[in-house]
Amino acid sequence: MTTPRTVLITGGNRGIGYAIAEEFVAQGHRVAVTARSGSGPAGTLTVIADVTDAASIDAAFTEVENELGPVEVVVANAGITRDMLLLRMSEDDFTSVIDTNLTGAFRVVKRASKGMLKARFGRIVLISSVVGLYGSAGQANYSASKAALVGFARSISRELGARNITANVVAPGFIETDMTAELPEAQQAEYKKSIPAGRYGSAAEVAKAVTWLAGDDAAYITGAVIPVDGGLGMGH
Ligand SMILES: NC(=O)c1ccc[n+]([C@@H]2O[C@H](COP(=O)([O-])OP(=O)(O)OC[C@H]3O[C@@H](n4cnc5c(N)ncnc54)[C@H](OP(=O)(O)O)[C@@H]3O)[C@@H](O)[C@H]2O)c1
Questions:
Q1: pLDDT given at position 177
Q2: What's the rounded Cα separation, in Å, for the pair 194 and 192?
């Protein structure tokens, strides 16, 4: 049994974020999710926020703090893809992905760190991707944004580690969600062939790694990149 915490997950209205919220609820935590539309699973508080807008993040945190208490665990999960071959990738394709996936995580973690420093406790989990370190043709923007989260988490670990704040990265491989359903069939089949586990993962399997990193048993783990990828990214 782990200590019950107040948890905030960005992008908790569907996909991996939704599954992470479900798992935290199942383990007895106080759970809030951000959503731009829709809502989180049963037992969660849904707050409206867009990670590209710092004011909306600030307002969401304030609402969660008022309803559930200071945020002790934050999961930066919201993310987008805008896949395109480099030659055809516009500057907007590149910067919009960076703005959501990387700067969005910065906005959320910076706001969360205020309360964590005061409490001298915090668990920060950033949802990256296997392609952050593996690379992926047609995903230069996405891969760059996800690789950058590793440097971000490791810098936070060095800066805030002595205050009992950990910052870790979870790097999912091919997980069955709306994001991967959009990939062409041929690309999906190609990926599957290269996964040692021989199958795609489920959002629930990612959620188990996230809750473990946020729990009491992972107190001495920080700056780590935990793959949940069936072996796809081994050695990267
Ligand atoms: N699926 C995979 O195989 C896979 C693999 C590796 C890593 N990941 C990462 O895991 C995370 C979740 O992915 P997923 O597969 O669950 O994706 P998804 O089903 O497409 O869901 C993405 C979530 O992010 C939210 N979001 C996007 N832009 C946002 C913004 N500007 N502000 C607030 N929320 C925003 C979405 O909200 P709306 O509903 O409002 O759009 C949605 O809740 C992402 O960071 C993704 O890169 C996924």
A1: 87
A2: 5
pTM: predicted TM-score of the whole model, two decimal places: 0.97
- Distance between CA atoms of residues 233 and 236, nearest Å: 6
Q: Which residues of the chain have pLDDT under 70?
A: 1
Residues near ligand 1 with C-beta < 6 Å?
10-11, 13-17, 34, 36-37, 50-52, 77-80, 100, 127, 129, 172, 174-175, 177-180
Q: Which residue's alpha carbon is at the smallest distance from atom 19 of ligand 1? A: 15
Of the candidates 18, 134, 142, 200, the residue annotated as catalytic is 142
pLDDT at 173: 96
Q: Residue 180 has what pLDDT?
A: 81
Cα–Cα nearest to 74, from 24, 121, 108: 108
* Residue 142: active-site member: yes
**All domains of the chain in start order, with CATH:** 6-175+203-224 (3.40.50.720)
CA atoms within 13 Å, Cβ hemisphere of 221: 17
Using CA atoms, how far residue 155 sits from 12, 42, 76, 235, in Å, is 26, 35, 16, 22
